[in-house]
Design a protein that fits this description.
By secondary structure, this protein is mostly helical. The chain has eleven helices and two strands. The protein has one domain: ABC transporter involved in vitamin B12 uptake, BtuC, CATH 1.10.3470. Strand 1 and strand 2 form a beta hairpin. The radius of gyration is 19 Å and the shape is globular. The N and C termini lie far apart (about 45 Å). It is a multi-pass membrane protein. It comes from Parazoarcus communis SWub3 = DSM 12120.
Length: about 290
Amino acid sequence: MLFLILFTSLLLGGAYALMAMGLTLQYGVARIMNLSIGETLVGAAFAAFWLQTQAQVGPLWGLLVITPAAFVLNWLIYRHLLTPLVRRAKNRGMLEVDSILATFGLLFILQGVMLALFGGNYYSYSYFSEPVELFGHTFALNRIVAFAVAAAVALALYLGLNRTRTGTAVRAVSVDPVAAGLVAIDVARTSALAFAIGGALTACGGALLSMFLTFNASMGVVFTTKALIIVIMGGVGDPRGAVIAALLLALAETTVATLVDPGLTLAATYGLFVLILLFRPQGIMGRRTA
């Protein structure tokens, strides 16, 4: 039973981690608290559903379309909706408030579009749903495949942030945008890039989750809430903390769903969040401010 819970948590946590890393980049680098990130995830799930059922293109191949499209869409959102807010903000606090209000409105726009296109029904599809036996336990193949892809994407992000000049610029802007500008880093361009990459990561997570979860147009707020909790738990701006927090959140949800009641998974999420705030308010990978 313990192995079953741990392995199931690992499979679910992979997709959660992509979503959380997306918000970590958007907030930690671009300083945008994006409350519409759940709608980005659900929109990608619908795109994967449409490609699978209407165009007969599987979600893994669909990632080659969904991820770049999400990148471009989020780039445009940042350049045309959020850049004016960045320019007028006198400090980080003002930018956070403005971005919360702007993306809160964007949430309803995206949700309304999805409701108009797909209605309020729940959707799912069958893809790699056959059972696979591992270590004496049976798991769905689609969950294993989703985790493998999520792990590969997370590794690519880690290498990109730590082994390339662009990644170094992104990390520099995350630490101190003013100092980054003084060493000839284009802060505006780097922030837009980070926001777009964050949206692409979230969309990738949504397409992977659609392989084994049922979804509808109104549940983006649930994923937004989970992403916010994971980012705060992990330490704002640290992708490593986001991965660890995503796995912990998945473990809490899986444990409660397996041993207690599936209806209490959200309560377990908030319970874990409260414990982190009480005993490590700076987050798992965060540092106390001097």
